[in-house]
Amino acid sequence: MAEMTIEKPRRRRVRMSLGDRIFDAVNYTLLCLLMVVTLYPFLNTLAVSFNDATDSLRGGIYLWPRKWTLENYKFVFEEATIFQATLTSVLRTVIGTVLTVFCSAMVAYTISRPEYVLRKFVTIAFILTMYINGGLIPTYLLIRDLGLIGSFWVYIWPGLIGVFNLIIIRSFIENLPDNILESAKIDGAGEFRTFFSIVLPLCTPVLATVALFTGVWQWNSWFDVFLYNSSYEHLSTLQYELQKILQFSNASTRSVDFTAAGAQQGLSQVTPYAIRATMTIVASVPIIMVYPFLQKYFVKGMMVGGVKE
């Protein structure tokens, strides 16, 4: 038998016009500039954190350390409060994110159901809280009367339901096919079974998006520590420790010799400028490492309401 040869279809090259080439060139150039503007502050801070502290005072550090050293990181991690503050930050981020996402999803599912007669009233009541605030002093008095001052749960309960997150999740649930929820009810599933077995799995993209928003907010929050728990070292967070360094320009409560005489005696040389950069990197890297795992869900979640049947 004669061998049959099958010719593969040739790909036609699409010729781009001069206008399209110019448009792509401008787009790529602007995106490269945006990338440089976005990454440069972080890379510069990273370079300063790994550079010799006294050498950094001369300036001229851009994207690469001039004199490599780990003394800045050794100084930071020798502080007794850093590990406790890091543990508190991790706990408040994990616990706060899980509880906020779960509670917001439950409320969002409730107000998304057309059979719930008070859903419009409850929705409007939630939205009004975004425009009307009781103020700092009434909020502090409320927190004090609830007995949350000096407690870890002051980081969790006040922000348990985020209205913005609530609206996002509700919009996503409303765009789910009604046939799926109706089929579950026909099969005898109650509201809790429907919520846990059907709604939550289908809402994975939006829940991941809200978890990212909430996690970043919990990790970066420091003002609530300043208001309610500034007198309790065991409840301090990593961001609050960073804020104290940025505010008072002092790397630590320990006495460190910054003078030339101290350098001749072989003492570790650190400066507030270098320690600020080091603390910024220490506080930023953990939350940056989480983002790649949630990126695909983040893109899907941001498209909520973009397509409707």
Automatic annotation (TrEMBL):
Protein location: Cell membrane
Write the record's keywords in alphabetical order, separated by commas: Cell membrane, Membrane, Sugar transport, Transmembrane, Transmembrane helix, Transport
Instruction: Classify the protein's membrane topology as the record does.
Output: Multi-pass membrane protein
A GO biological process of this protein is: transmembrane transport
Database matches in CDD domains: TM_PBP2
One GO cellular component, as annotated: plasma membrane
Q: Which InterPro entries match?
A: MetI-like (IPR000515), MetI-like_sf (IPR035906)
Q: Which residues form a coiled coil?
A: none
Domain ABC transmembrane type-1 per the UniProt entry, residue ranges: 86-294
Pfam families named in the record: BPD_transp_1
Question: What residue intervals traverse the membrane?
Answer: 21-43, 90-109, 121-143, 155-173, 194-219, 273-294
Q: Which domain of life is it from?
A: Bacteria
The family note in this entry says:
Belongs to the binding-protein-dependent transport system permease family.
Instruction: Name the chain's protein.
Output: ABC-type sugar transport system, permease component
